[in-house]
Design a protein that fits this description.
The chain is built from twelve helices and 13 strands. The chain is of the alpha/beta class and 363 residues long. Strands 2-8-7-6-5-3-4 form a seven-stranded mixed beta sheet, sandwiched between helices. A four-stranded antiparallel beta sheet has the order 9-10-13-12, with helices on one face. β5, α6 and β6 form a beta-alpha-beta unit.
Length: 363
């Protein structure tokens, strides 16, 4: 990559979706398979709500997101006081770590790296539960042995990023009960749950009333293509914990446009239906295409696929052809040769597979 004047190379994260660096280098927009965001773009109602909200841009945003929390409460059939909104799920992960100040926490590996980063910044000792490739990278009952008194926090990603795999509902129930017995807070990141065909059956939102030590994280980022607006929320029946999380970060974390966008997005049922249908149709097609090209694919259930190919340099090769792919070599528990590709439209998936095929054949 060519460095440009003023470009910061010391940022402490490495995620997908860095289209800005690509445009600085090549002067045009890439075909971005590195970010797992809805390929349908912003729902039109959201776009209109954001425009209309600019008339209130001279005022501070509602620091408590009252209207949005009320609407989210209705959407999830929960009291609005069980909802805390934030500047994306990453903001809420930081706030949870700072509010709890856990001494010991357990995360899976591989999984989203922001959990460990946030916890370590809060002074927590983070332990890892390895997801073994020989077991299909699935969470197994062995995790129950790690849930014991003295474990302050367990973080799960359902479906997991980058594998796209879910944990069986019976095992999730066992984990929830084990955490209750051990006095362990269970935080479940469900940001990709809307892409599951059976999300209502899989989600733990319905367990919140009986489990005050359960925190569920959600976001508008992926489902509604709102990554640039930054909007996420935490659900928990322990309102004291939510209040503490609210104080564990700067005020006015959610902008007026983001709040308006969230309210409008909750009305976009046709959009949600079309998105689930697209992913359900295109994910198997993308998996078959990758396998035909000699890749080993993890059969994920979300809007992305984790795959392995022995060529460790696919990302720069594809980048030179205008395609961004997520290199997963930096995930704990993976290594060079592991990649993650988003599920996009049929046309875009076809272009990606064609270019990948040419790269792999040396064309």
């Amino acid at each position: 990559m060519t460095l440009r004047e003023g470009e910061n190379t010391m940022l402490p994260w490495n995620h997908g979706g860095d289209w800005a660096a690509y445009e600085l280098e090549y002067g045009g927009a890439p075909l971005d398979f590195s970010a797992n965001v809805s390929p349908l773009g912003l729902p039109e109602g959201v776009r209109e709500a954001v425009r209309a909200s600019l008339d209130r841009a001279d005022r501070y945003p509602d620091p408590f997101c009252r209207e949005l929390c009320r609407r989210l409460g209705e959407y999830h059939r929960l009291p609005p006081q069980w909802v805390l909104c934030g500047n994306g799920a990453a903001d809420l992960i930081d706030r949870l770590a700072l509010a709890l100040r856990p001494r010991r926490a357990l995360v899976t590996a591989p999984t989203f790296s922001e959990y460990q980063r946030a916890l370590e910044l809060a002074g927590c000792r983070v332990e890892r539960f390895p997801l073994e490739e020989g077991e299909g990278f699935r969470l197994t009952e062995r995790v129950l042995e790690r849930i014991e008194p003295g474990l302050d926090l367990l973080v799960l990603c359902e479906p997991n990023n980058p594998t796209g795999l879910t944990t069986s509902r019976p095992l999730l129930g066992e984990i929830l009960r084990a955490c209750a017995r051990a006095g362990t807070v269970l935080a479940v990141d469900e940001c990709f749950a809307p892409f599951l065909e059976d999300q209502e059956d899989h989600s733990l939102v319905g367990e919140l009333a009986g489990h005050p030590d359960l925190v569920v994280l959600r976001a508008f980022t992926k489902e509604y293509a709102m990554a640039g607006l930054r909007l996420g929320y935490a659900l928990c029946s322990d309102t004291a914990l939510l209040e503490k999380m609210g104080r564990s970060g700067p005020p006015w974390a959610v902008s007026t446009p983001a709040q308006a966008a969230g309210v409008a997005a909750l009305e976009a049922e046709d959009y949600r239906r079309a998105l689930r249908a697209l992913v359900a149709e295109e994910r198997p097609r993308l998996q078959r295409g990758l396998e035909t090209l000699g890749c080993r694919v993890v059969p994920g259930q979300a809007n992305y696929l984790l795959f392995f190919h022995p060529d460790p340099d696919l990302c720069p090769k594809l980048r030179a052809r205008g395609v961004l792919l997520r290199d997963c070599g930096d995930y704990a528990g993976l290594g060079r040769g592991w990649y993650r590709a988003a599920v996009r439209t049929g046309r875009e998936n076809g272009i990606f597979l064609h270019i990948l095929g040419e790269v792999l054949s040396g064309g």
